Amino acid sequence: MEYYNNTLAVEASWLMDEGIVTKENFKLLAHRKHFNVVRRGCRNTPALVAYDSMPERFKRMIVDKIGRDPYQVAKYNQLEECIEANIQTSVFFETYAIDESRHLPKEKQREYYANAIVLDAIHTLINKKKAKRRSMGGKASRAWEQLSEAVQELDKTKYPHALPENPRRLEDRYKKYRSEGLESLIHKNYKNKNAAKVDDDVKESVLAELLDDPRNFDNAQVMRLYNTMAQMAGWKNITQATVGVWRDRLDTKIYAGRRGYVAFSNKKSMQVKRSAPTCPLYFWTLDGWDVELLFQKTEANKKTGYSNTTYHHRPTVIIVLDAYNKYPVGYAIGLNESPELIKAALRNAAKHTAELFGAMYRTHQIQSDRYAISHLTPYYEIMAKHSTPARAKNAKAKIIEPYFNSLNKKYCQMQTNWSGFGIQSKKESQPNVEFLNKHKSSFPDFDGVCEQVVKMIEAERAEKLEQYLQQWGKMPAADKIEFKRENFLLAFGQRTDRRNMLQDNGMKVTIEGIKRDYDCFDLSFRDHYSTHWEIRYDPEDLTTVLAVNEDETLRYILEEKYVQPMALKDRKPGDSGALQRVNDFKELQKEQIETFRAKNIENLSKVMPILLQNETLSKLMLTDSNGQHKDRRNDQRRAKQPGAVKPNFKKAAEDVIENEETNFFEMY
Length: 668
Description:
By secondary structure, the chain is α+β, with helices and mostly antiparallel strands. The strands form four sheets. Strands 5, 8, 9, 10, 11 and 12 form a six-stranded mixed β-sheet that branches. It has a six-stranded antiparallel β-sheet with strand order 13-16-17-18-15-14, covered by helices on one side. Strand 16 and strand 17 form a beta hairpin.
């Protein structure tokens, strides 16, 4: 409905869309002048039909469709036609700051904006009707009644205003808006800080310190403490609701005092987002986990002689996790976390890489917590190119923590001896204690629970192995850092009880009560016959061991001696190759000695003839062909005086050799 040239008109398309008249019937009625078409339709302009010209049956159908008098609808539409969007008004409410960090809620922004544009529309409509005030009822009060009705009839979903229904109150709101502007539409709770009871920095500081207290007072306790001080200072009392508002407002600033700086760093401070490594062995992380699986333990009481069985024990497993696809590359199970258990997990990780890739490899980076960090750092550094311990008490830096939770839900929770989630979990999430007491006698012992953990980890490996190996195959060869056997034994090898010395037939070593013979094919090893060697070995592979001296400056890989059969008849494949290897080593050793002697002879040949001659003249009274001895001896002394010409020892030696026709070195 709308007015066209002061005539109430209806769109022809609306009549057809609502089924009041068909297209053919409309044309016939218009042709017979039963419908007065006051505006013909064209592109983007609908045809309009005068409402008063319609037969009564069509008027009744229109009233039924719209549910009220069309003339009233037209009045409301006149107000809506005056409503215009205003970008400056929208920006004002969007950017309005309640304090240094808070803005108006989104719902209030929409409400205040709708109030503003509707009031602007009322102002526009009043200006249009100034010359025709009488047509709006004759009196101003009557005009505001009509405007109030028009405002309340606006679609609230389109214009979510909160303007009053009372005409007088609407008029007052309009006048205040015209005189004070947009800020008059904002409620005093948002804009008038003077109305607040906590209205200055001193009061805020007192309230903040009570909320920040590490004893974690609740709202009622904070209210009582604040009001006690308020009475002495002459301030207004506050309510629990006020405390709740301030607790929410100051949450970030008071969190460290209430929960500690570690919790603040993990919960409220900015966090770093990281991406997973693109290849295996780029990043390993490790940590200890008290597995949520219970086992029973029977111990004898020394005083009473009776045994007692307890069922609350849990194993500890150290897992070395490859962050590429969370593949458990190494693990070790024990009763509690310890440096030795961590080293066992690292040892398992190194040996597992050999099982996967044919040789042991190091990781580029390893992350750990700071448990026994000074003792374990050398092991981390020998295992990885870079050792980067996580910041103290920063659990979020370690992806292995949530990995443990996933293992707990995926595997442990399915077992009868499951102990539940962490102590901070809801009671409803924990296992039934009655059920655990009923079945505790079926709990496994330590060996049994270890089997459960091994199956769990091996299942994880099997699930992720294919992807792990595929990406290893795509990994650049330059990024694969081999872990040498020497370094492995140096870091993770077990040690013999006593030190050994090299003998003529190698080194005899007693390992776990069994005597074994070892030798080394490094020529320099036999230069240290007087050294006392410590032997480090891998009990699972005794084919090679590592010999190190006391300060670990000398390190040699020793191989277990190959036992050759005495009888040719007993020879088997490989015997001749091993024998040839020993013979080749002997030849190299012989060549080394000959080279050493030849070099020494060459050096001595430059000085020995003339030195021997000089030494002889000093000790023996041998005369020359003229019977003189002192003259020859004095010649040498004069040559040593300042300004004397230095003898050419090389030429003298050559002359001696040539004259005597005797090679000095053939004499020895």
